[in-house]
Amino acid sequence: MYQEPIFLSPEFKERIWGGTKLKELFQYDIPSNETGECWGISGHANGPNKIINGPLAGKTLNDAWNKHRELFANEQGDEFPLLVKILDSKKDLSVQVHPNDTYAREVEGENYGKTECWYVIDCEEESEIIFGHHAKSKDELTSMVNNGQWAQLLRRIPVQPGDFFYVPSGTIHAIGEGIQILETQQSSDITYRVYDYDRIGADGQKRELHLDRSLDVTTVPHKDPEVVRDSYLEAGLRFEKLVEEKYFTVHHWDLDGKSNELHPDKYTLISVLTGEGVVTIDTKDYSFKKGDHFIIPATVNNYTLSGRAKMITSRSNK
Q1: Which domains does the chain carry?
Q2: What is the pTM of this model?
Q3: Is position 207 annotated as part of the catalytic site?
Q4: What pLDDT, in 10s, does the model give residues 188-220?
């Protein structure tokens, strides 16, 4: 039986709005000074991670999902369901919206729409995100979009490190400049741009917008989802539940010492934001550090953590 963590090699994505913070904060070997995304835990076809340890070293997370489903509690589905990223927005991201599962299947031919959530790792002073809009009806939304009334339409919110936002499909949103976040989402790469500040892409043209589909899928009126952050301390490990919803449950873990035995009911995705430590399984130690991404497979009955580190963890709710 597979009795060790599955460590993954990150995949990087260059973006027009990206920068160098992924290197500065996590010592990643980024491909350029416009690196916007680290795909830390991904089975998506646009960037599946390679496994770097154990008997599956050299295989992709997709390989493990397709051929060793016992590692994932024999969960159903053709694709690994979640995608965990770290984003660096040196510049504003486009204002965008994502479809739900039904629209993604019927219009895009994809299995998943995109519901996501954000944990703010770091940001500059006075940083903002766009989260929602002020239109009261679909007609008002359409009119404001078509007339470019962005200042009146878009809802801006200041952010600081440690903030958390749950972003269901249908929510107009954008990460502002100077922010680094960890994003947990459905395994989807479908994005509809609503507005992009008239930026010019690599081809010398304004980047494509997707107004018809954006208007199709946007929730009107906008309503903030309720987020209740519950936390408790247990033997050196503080657990804080950030969200539990249809697709995923996400926690923030703060490790200071040694945890009690942990007994996962499913497989657990772990991304290390700060510090370092050790996972112990059957008396064998596996070291981790800031910037690492790994999975505790469902075949592990129990494990402990020791060290000092802060982590974002998640699991699928399929």
Answers
A1: 6-217 (2.60.120.10), 230-316 (2.60.120.10)
A2: 0.96
A3: no
A4: 999 999 999 988 877 888 889 999 999 999 999
